[in-house]
UniProtKB/TrEMBL annotation:
It comes from Amycolatopsis thailandensis. It comes from the Bacteria. Residues 28-74 form the HTH cro/C1-type domain. CDD domains: HTH_XRE. This is HTH cro/C1-type domain-containing protein. InterPro entries: Cro/C1-type_HTH, Lambda_DNA-bd_dom_sf. Residues 302-311 have a biased composition (Basic residues). Residues 1-29, 302-328 are annotated as: Disordered.
Length: 328
């Protein structure tokens, strides 16, 4: 997934044409020379300068290094208008890459970092996992190390008012009757799988984003079912509302997460644990169905792995469960 950033095409062209070349007696880099330095094509640079395409943050950083200028000159952001988003983009990072690099700085004690959490902070909403002063200071230090900025500059780029949306403790599974249908963050998507008809935390998410990091629904989004292992496309109307809450069973967490009431398996947004969902906790029959689906998916995976190793035959029990005919 590539995230796009703000880009000043006029500044790129003027910096390229004014690039000092004392060895040639004239200033300026040709498009071919710049393309060789950046590692792209001449046609792509023409698209950048014509405004037909916007480079991703990593490409802007590569252009700034090739033109020997500051990334800020190409991003078109004033020095006094720094935000967390501009600091991240000036470092040449997308939200997903930034979350991956911030995560090792928050290991001991463990503090979760994800695309959704970074996006919430950049939007001015402090997640519950980062609300304490100690965690807030750790997040600022981690961002400063990843974005290669001072901690004071990162703290100054924080939104002026970050509400501390601390969620109170609630029962393990409680249905909330009124909950508006909104498009949640990508990390919290839940949809019913057309194969097994179960609602669970997705095993994989594939989607596109706009320049402002919002979801681009003109491109199909694909979710992977963690129960049956199949993938399916979803639209905003297929996403289920978070009309229930569940308490994380992990003793070191115990936080509350909003989830759909029909989910048989959920993910804790605070620690990443995958506990049973409200549907599995309140309905034993639904829990047994989910276990049977997962068991069948496990057998299929084992059958595929055994096929890659023909020297070790399947057992009779596994052969019968996978509907494989007996061989002489």
């Amino acid at each position: 997934m590539r995230g796009q950033a703000s880009f000043d095409r006029v500044a790129m062209k003027s910096t390229r044409t004014a690039f000092p070349r004392p060895d040639r007696g004239r200033d300026g880099l040709s498009l071919d020379e710049l393309a060789d330095r950046v590692g792209t094509s001449r046609r792509q640079l023409v698209r950048y300068e014509m405004g037909e395409a916007t480079p991703e943050p990593a490409r802007i950083a590569a252009l700034a290094a090739a033109l020997e200028c500051d990334v800020r000159e190409l991003s078109g952001v004033a020095p006094d208008a720094d935000t967390l988003r501009t600091l991240r983009r000036n470092a040449g990072l997308t939200l997903r890459v930034a979350a991956t690099r911030v995560r090792p700085h928050l290991v001991r004690p463990r503090l979760r970092s994800s695309v959704w959490l970074l996006g919430e902070v950049e939007a001015g909403r402090l997640p519950a996992a980062w609300c304490s002063p100690q965690n807030h200071a750790r997040v600022i230090a981690a961002m400063a190390a990843v974005y290669k900025q001072s901690a004071s500059r990162v703290e100054a780029a924080m939104p002026a008012c970050l509400p501390t949306n601390v969620v109170q403790q609630a029962p393990r599974a409680e249905v909330v009757p009124s909950c508006p249908l909104v498009t949640p963050a990508p990390d919290t998507w839940y949809a019913r799988s057309p194969s097994c008809e179960l609602v669970a935390s997705p095993s994989s998410i594939s989607h596109q984003v706009h320049a402002d990091d919002s979801v681009d629904w003109s491109v199909p989004a694909v979710l992977g079912c963690s129960q049956c292992g199949t993938t399916h496309e979803v639209t905003p109307f297929d996403l289920l509302p978070h009309d229930s809450v569940i308490t994380c069973p992990r003793s070191t967490c115990g936080k509350v997460t909003q989830v759909p009431a029909e989910a048989v398996e959920v993910v804790c947004v605070h620690c990443g644990l995958h506990p049973p969902g409200p549907a599995a906790l309140l309905d034993p029959a639904r829990s047994n169905v989910a276990k049977a689906v997962r068991y069948g998916h496990t057998l299929k995976c084992r059958r595929r792995s055994r096929r890659k190793r023909p020297g070790k035959p399947l057992s009779a029990t596994l052969r019968r469960s996978c509907s494989i005919p007996e061989t002489d």
